[in-house]
Amino acid sequence: MDFPIETVRGKFPALDLTDKGRRRIYLDNPAGTQVPQAVADAVARCLLTTNANLGGYFETTVAAQKVVDDAHAAMADFLGAASPEEIIVGANMTTLTYHMSRTLGRRFKPGDEIIVTRMDHEGNVSPWLQLAEDLDLVVRFLPFDETSWQVEEAALSALLTDRTKLVALNYASNLTGSINRVKALTALAKQAGALVYVDAVQFAPHGLIDVQELGCDFLVCSAYKFFGPHMGILWGRRDVIDALKPYKCRCSSNGLPERFELGTPQIELMAGLTAAVDYFADLGASAGESGSRRRKIAKAFEVSIAHENPLALRLIEGLSDIEGLTIRGITDPARVNERVPTVSFTVDGIVPETIVRQLNAENIFLWSGHNYAWEIVHQLGIPAEQGVVRIGIAHYNSAAEIDETLESVHRVVAMLRQQRS
C-alpha cells in the first residue's frame, strides 16, 4: 500500500504550526520527535481525571495504577517482551543506564572487563567508564569499521576474554545511522559468558524490536524518539533482573518492575507512552493488519520503512551532488536497509554550525555538533567542537520537505563558499 503520509501528518498538530507565516520542517527527529494529538490528549486526560499517587483504594488511585499497568503492557508489546514485569520505566535512557550500571556493579570485581563501542551514544559509554573507574574494572573499546560503518563480529571476538562480564552495544548510531547486527554480536558475547546491554534509542522509531529474538539481557529506548513523551524504557530479561539487588528505598516494593522504578512514577507520561504505542498499532491497522497489537505494530514498521528508506536515499543522492561534502555513513542504495534515515555530513572548509544556523533561520530544524556521539567523532578525526550537520527523517516527513531541504543546503553551501572567497 502507499504510505498514508497526509493522514499521518494530520495526526501531528505541530506539523501545521508556522512562525510569522513560515512553515516548519522538522528534521531534528534523532533528538526528539513530535507527538500525535492522541499522546497529548492521553497526558492531559490522565492529569485531569486520574491524578493520584499509587497504592490506595479510592477511585483515582486505582485508575492511576491501571495507567501504569497499561504502559508496561504496551511496551512489552512494542519490544516483544515475555512479560510486562520485564519493562522498567524511568526518566530517560541515560538515567536508567546509570542506575542499572550501578546495580550490575554489585556483581563485578576488580579486574573484570567491560566492552564498550566507539559507535555508541555517550549515554551507553560514560556510565560504564565511570563504573569501571569506581570498581577498578578493565574497559576495552570496540571500534566500528569505517568501510562497512558497522561493528564487525571479528572485532568483537578479538576483544572477548574469559574476564568479559558485559558488552554494551548500540542498535543504530545517532550520527551515522548505521544499524548493527545485534543478534550476531550478542551471540558472540553470550558464548563468552558476558551480559549484553543494548542501546536501541535510535533504532526504536524506525524498526521492529524483538528482544527475545536478539538474545540480549537488557535493551533501552526513549519514548520521545518514537512520538511519545519524555521518558526512557529499559527491558531486562526476567531471570537476569530477578536476581539483581537494585539501589532503592528500604520500604519500597520488592516486586518487579517496581523495585527498579525509583520514587513516584510519571503517571501522566505513562498514559502518553501507551498512546504512542497505540499510535503505531493504529497505523498498522490502517495498513490492513487485524491481529494482535504486536502484529499491528510490526505492520506499522513495515509500511513506515517503505516510506522512510526512499526519503533517505533521496536525501543522500541530493547531498552527494555537493562538491566537498562527505556523508559520514552508508551511502550505497543496496544497503539502505542497514541504516536508519539519519544522515550526517561535513563540508570541506565550512563549520557545520554555520550551515545549520542558516537552515534554522529558514525554519528547517536540524542539528550540528557531536550529538553525544563522542567516540564516533574522535574515531573519524572530526573536531568534537564542530561535529557534523545531522538531518534525521521520521515517517511524518514528506518528499517535498526533503527536496526543499536539499535546495536550501545547496544554496547555503554555495553562499558560504562565496563569502570565503
TrEMBL record:
SUPFAM superfamilies per UniProt: PLP-dependent transferases (SSF53383)
Domain Aminotransferase class V: 25-403
Species this chain originates from: Mesorhizobium caraganae
Domain of life: Bacteria
NCBIfam families given in the database record: am_tr_V_VC1184
Name by which UniProt lists this protein: Cysteine desulfurase-like protein
Annotated InterPro entries: Aminotrans_V_dom, Cys_dSase-rel, PyrdxlP-dep_Trfase, PyrdxlP-dep_Trfase_major, PyrdxlP-dep_Trfase_small
Keywords for the protein's UniProt record, in alphabetical order: Pyridoxal phosphate
PANTHER family the record matches: CYSTEINE DESULFURASE, PYRIDOXAL PHOSPHATE (PLP)-DEPENDENT ASPARTATE AMINOTRANSFERASE SUPERFAMILY
